[in-house]
Specification:
The complex is a heterodimer of chains A (about 625) and B (about 80). With about 625 residues, chain A is α/β, with parallel strands linked by helices. Chain A contains 26 helices and 19 strands. Chain A has 4 domains: about 45 residues, no CATH class; about 210 residues, Rossmann fold; about 150 residues, HAD superfamily/HAD-like (Rossmann fold), CATH 3.40.50.1000; about 180 residues, Gcn5-related N-acetyltransferase (GNAT) (Aminopeptidase), CATH 3.40.630. In chain A, strand 14 and strand 15 form a beta hairpin. Chain A starts with a helix and ends with a strand. With about 80 residues, chain B is mainly alpha-helical. Chain B has a single domain, classed as Non-ribosomal Peptide Synthetase Peptidyl Carrier Protein, Chain A. In chain B, helix 1 packs across helix 2 and helix 1 crosses helix 4. Chain B is globular and about 30 Å long. The chains are: A alpha/beta (about 625), B mainly alpha (about 80). At the A-B interface, helix 3 and helix 13 of A face helix 1 and helix 2 of B.
């Protein structure tokens, strides 16, 4: 449908108060036409929509005009289910705004801060007068700017726990010394040195990230990125046609920062992982090789393997005869992906929406963490309307364009990778085997015993902090309070007197599952309160939760507690945890806004670790 | 109405939150409260992006009415 028609449809849906449909139509409009004009339209309609969006506040500190990018960013965020509030800093006041703890930046209390300053503003000498600088002066300029960046990072961290996204410095399209620049420690090299120092400074702090502005400018063309007229008259550093690219780059960060992430990429087969239709074209007919046009599909397969390394598991959802499909997967010489790379599959003739629901269930992950990749617009539409929670990748007509569409899909982004992420597909494989075992062994207890589980509980330390924070922020199902805490917060809890942050690692006969659960408690005045208690869906229903609770009880006793209590705060996703406290003998002592406070009298009761789990308490 | 006039009118309608048929060629900065300097910048960049053109600073100063903007777009596109 055309953009003009979609606009009309949005407005009549709003009049009819069909808000969900209006929001879906706005998202469709944004896919059809992601221009500044459309962004202004979307932004003007967000306020009149009564739909559930995740609120998020971003402060943009800058040395140039970014005002026209804001509607583009807000429209993109809206299409991801985020209601973005943006506040802009004053021109070139970024340093004061960061260093002054009383500044308007901190009063705004942003969830994330973006620092967008161009090379010419950080380093006018390196940028405009490089040819006149001798080696010493150039080195001094590099140190000055690097120091300034490190100072801003430390300054922001001193006053705020917000995520911090810093643009690195762009290198010039035309270096001051021309060809000689590449033959010497030239201008480009000086700016790269600043960028290296920036990366190192960012890594010293939690939640500080570099936006590779230099690569962004290069990707879209250094020569045409800027519009010098607009710079001189309006302080616009980016030309109009590149503003959407800047907005999209910021938008890519929003997904990992708000935990709107894909955990499983579900691929169609025909015309997606290979060209042609296996059931009709046969093994010889499908296109999959290093040559055109099969190369486009091999590129998609390679990208799928990259996703796996990021901790995103792969699955298949295809309308085919299963035997035909596996014949190609197992035996086609052009296949880069192998059968064992897929953690689950649904190859049948049922509607794809049904298959996606089943895949989510089989893998024990939320349906909203699936991304669906299919060349067929009809299938994409079917999924969008039947299961709107699924993230759908919009693919262009030509398969040669698929790879770029996948690379640019923000839910695939990760800003940090833990060791667990890289091994995640192994866990799903092991879980599959464990389920097979469960159906073989007789009683539940026999099954638990057969797993040969060892649970290692470790107080918070610098090695497990990242994974601990990651679990706190993404675990939805077995999570008693669903309180999200940033990595910075968790680190701070670990140091507060009376507080206890602990993680649990589970090793079974199939695999080392890694760290799969976290609990946070604080004890004062003989009462130990459980702030957070959560387990990855990977180990639900194996009594690991009892092992962790038994450890908390023992720890609470050590602290002199006579009572342990915890809230169960219900969400759409945590019913699996609703009976947890009750099942362990806790009593209901309070109720508020749907939440229930459960308590266990430690002078009369105990929770012990199941005999089939070996519990090991490690030092922090 | 020329094609660029209706496209420019649509951009202005989106930006100022009015219906496109209210935006005539005499729709102007003078007569519209919301048309401040930030809105002007948004309008200029959205038109540039839509038609893949770049305005000179002198032209940006002339862009006071929708009719004037559409005329400039037509001139630019005619080369």
């Amino acid at each position: 449908m055309e953009a003009t028609e979609l606009r009309k449809q949005v407005d009549s849906l709003i009049v009819e108060k069909r808000h969900q449909e209006a929001a879906a139509t706005l998202a469709q409009l944004w896919r059809v036409d992601g221009s500044s004009a459309t962004a202004n339209f979307i932004v003007s309609r967000i306020e009149s929509l009564d739909v559930e969006l995740k609120p998020f506040k971003v402060a943009i500190l800058r040395s140039y005009t970014v005002e026209p990018i804001v509607p583009l960013l807000r429209a993109a965020a809206f299409s991801s289910g985020i209601n973005l509030t943006v506040e802009l800093g004053e021109f070139n006041a970024y340093m004061q705004e960061i260093l002054d703890g009383e500044s308007s930046l901190y009063k705004f209390a942003p969830d994330a801060v973006i620092l967008a300053v161009q090379s010419a503003d950080y380093a006018p000498d390196l940028w405009g007068d490089f040819a006149k600088l001798d080696g010493e002066k150039s080195k001094a300029a590099v140190e000055r700017v690097s120091g300034q960046l490190a100072q801003m990072i430390a300054g922001l961290r001193q006053h705020s726990k917000a995520h911090f996204v810093i643009h690195n410095l762009e290198t010039p399209a035309w270096p001051a010394n021309g060809l000689f620049d590449a033959q010497s420690e030239g201008q480009v090299e000086a700016i790269r040195a600043i960028n290296r120092n920036l990366r190192a400074a960012a890594r010293e702090f939690k939640g500080v990230y570099v936006l590779d502005y230099d690569a962004l400018v290069a990707r879209h063309g250094r020569d045409t990125w800027r519009d010098e007229h607009k710079w001189l008259t309006m302080r616009m550093a980016i030309s109009s046609k590149n503003l959407p690219h800047m907005a999209r780059e910021w938008h890519r960060f929003l997904h990992p920062l708000t935990n709107k992430l894909c955990k499983c990429a579900v691929f169609d087969l025909d015309n997606t992982l290979w060209g042609g239709i296996i059931g009709e074209d046969g093994m010889e007919g499908i296109k999959l090789s290093a040559e055109y046009p099969g190369a486009a599909h091999q590129a998609v397969q390679r990208f799928a393997l990259d996703l796996r390394e990021r901790g995103i598991v792969l699955a298949i959802c295809s309308k085919n005869n299963e035997a035909d499909a596996f014949e190609a997967i197992d035996n086609h010489p052009g296949m880069i992906l192998k059968r064992e790379h897929f953690s689950a599959h649904r190859i049948n003739w049922s509607p794809k929406s049904e298959n996606l629901k089943e895949l989510a269930k089989e893998l024990n992950i939320g349906i909203d963490s699936l991304a669906f990749i299919d060349d067929n617009p009809v299938e994409r539409q079917q999924v969008r309307s039947a299961v709107p929670e699924v993230m759908v990748v919009e693919l262009p007509k030509s398969p040669m364009g698929y790879i770029d569409a996948l690379r640019a899909f923000p839910p695939f982004e990760r800003l940090a990778l833990s060791a667990e992420d890289k091994k995640r597909h192994e866990f799903y494989e092991a879980a599959k085997q464990a389920r097979a075992l469960e159906s073989k062994v007789g009683s539940r207890e026999d099954f638990y015993r057969s797993l040969e589980q060892r649970a290692i509980v470790t107080p918070l330390n610098s090695m497990n902090l990242k994974r601990t924070a990651q679990l706190i922020n993404k675990t939805n199902q077995f999570n008693l309070t669903t309180r999200r805490h940033s990595e910075q917060d968790v680190a701070e809890f670990g140091e507060r007197p009376g507080w206890y942050v602990v993680s649990i690692q589970v090793v079974d006969r199939f695999t080392d599952n890694g760290i799969v659960g976290v609990a946070i408690t604080h004890t004062d005045d003989k009462v130990c309160e459980i702030d957070s208690f959560l387990l990855s869906c990977r180990v639900i229903a194996r009594t690991v939760e009892t092992a962790l609770l038994s450890h908390l009880v023992a720890q609470a006793r050590e602290q002199g507690a006579e009572r342990i209590q915890g809230w169960f705060l219900p969400t759409k996703k945590n019913p699996p945890a609703s009976n947890f406290y009750k099942d362990h003998g806790f009593e209901k002592i309070d109720e508020q806004d749907g939440g229930v406070l459960w308590s266990l009298d430690l002078t009369k009761n105990d929770v012990s670790c199941p005999e089939w789990i070996e519990l090991v308490v490690a030092k922090g | 109405m020329s094609q660029s006039l209706s496209a420019v009118a649509q951009i202005a309608a989106d930006l100022f939150g009015v219906s496109a048929d209210k935006v005539t060629d005499s729709f102007s900065a003078e007569s519209t409260d919301k048309w401040d300097s930030v809105a002007h910048l948004n309008l200029v960049t959205a038109v540039e992006e839509r038609f893949d053109i770049m305005f000179e600073p002198e032209e940006v100063d002339e862009m006071k009415t929708i009719g004037a903007i559409a005329k400039l777009v037509d001139e630019k596109r005619a080369g």
